[in-house]
Amino acid sequence: MERAPLPLNQVSDFDIRLLRVFKAVVECGGFTAAEVALGIGRSAISVHMGDLEKRLGLRLCQRGRGGFALTEEGREVYQATLALLASLETFRTEVNGLHRALRGELNIGITDNLVSLPQMRITHALAELKRRGPEVRINIHMTPPDAIALAVLDGSLHLGVVPAINSLASLESIPLYSERSLLYCADNHPLFHVDDAALAGVCLGHQEAVMPSYPLPPAARERHERLATSATASDREGIAFLILTGRYIGYLPDHLARPWVESGRLRALCPEQESFTTEFVTVTRRGRRPHRVLEAFLAALAAQGEPADGEE
Q1: Which pLDDT value is given to residue 294?
Q2: What tens digit of pLDDT does each residue of 74-123 get?
Q3: Rounded to whole angstroms, how far apart are CA atoms 81 and 110?
Q4: How far is CA 110 from CA 60, 96, 122, in A?
Q5: Phi and psi angles of residue 211, each rounded to the nearest 5 degrees, phi first
Q6: Quick check: 285 and 171 in contact, CB under 8 A?
Q7: Planar angle of CA 93, 101, 123, nearest 5 degrees
Q8: Which residues are 70's β-sheet partners?
Q9: What is the pLDDT of residue 306?
Q10: pLDDT tens for residues 41-55?
Q11: How many CB atoms lie within 10 A of CB 1?
C-alpha cells in the first residue's frame, strides 16, 4: 500500500529555491522555455521539479507529447508560491527600510518603445535613484500594459508605466507624459511619393493597414477603425516591422518613427488630420505598504515636473 505523503511542516531555503524554479517554469510555459530564464539545463529543471513534487506530495504538472500543463493542484501551488515570494519581498523591503542607506529593489514594468521619447523623465528619475542609493537594484520588465497592471496588483512589480486606459480602482496613477502617433507608410509604398494635396483625395481606408492587438484609448481606436486592417501586431515594434515592408500603412509614435523619417524610410500621411495622442501614467498599488526605494523613485520623478511636449 502506498503511504500518504507527510504534511509540509516547514518551508526551508531549499523549498523556496524549488518554488522559484517552479514559478519560472509556469511563467515560461514549460521546461525548455525556462532554461534561459533560469540559466540551467532542462534535465536539471526536471530534477528540481521532481524534488518539489516529492517534497509537496503533489503532482504539479503534466509534461510529455501533449506539452506542458498545470494540474489543478499545480495551479493552486502556483498562486500560493506568488503569495509566499511576495511576502518574502515585503519582509526584505521592510528590513532594508530599517537602514539609513537606501537599498533594496525597484521592480518596474514599462510599455515597449518608450525609451525614445524626448521627455526622459523615467530615465532621469532612475539616474537620481541610483545616485541616492548606489546599492539599489533596478529590474525593468518590458511587458504589455494589461500584464503590467496585474503584476503591480499582485506585488511582483512595484510600479508600472502604461497608457491611461481603463485604470483599475485598486491602482493609483500619476500623469507622466503625452505621446503623439501619426499614420505612416514606407518608402516602397505607393503613397510615399504622393504629395499632401493629392493625398486629400485618396481614401486611406482602402489601403491595407496594421492594427495593434493591445487595448487602445478611444481616440486611437476610432482612428484604426477607419482603416482596412489586414494584419495585427502585439507591440509597436511589430507594427514598425510591418509598415517597413511597404505593404501596409499604420500608426506609430512619432518619436519611434523619427529615425526612419530622417533617413527617408518612412513618411507621415496627412499629419494634420491623421494623428492621436496617448496619455501615459505611472501606476502603483493603492494602499501599498511603505517602500523606501519606490517612494524615493516617485519623489525623483515628481521633482522633474511635467516638461512640455518635445522638451527634454
Answers
A1: 93
A2: 899 999 999 999 888 888 877 776 666 788 899 999 987 777 777 788 99
A3: 24
A4: 32, 25, 10
A5: -120, 135
A6: yes
A7: 80
A8: 61
A9: 53
A10: 889 988 999 998 898
A11: 3
Q: What is the pTM of this model?
A: 0.65
Q: Which residues of 237-251 are buried (b: 16+ CB within 10 A; e: fewer)?
A: ebbbebbbeebbbbb
Q: How far apart are CA 226 and CA 121, in angstroms?
A: 34
Domains and CATH numbers, the chain: 13-92 (1.10.10.10), 102-175+280-303 (3.40.190.10), 178-278 (3.40.190.10)
pLDDT band at 7 (very low <50, low <70, confident <90, very high): low
Grid coordinates representing 276?
492621436
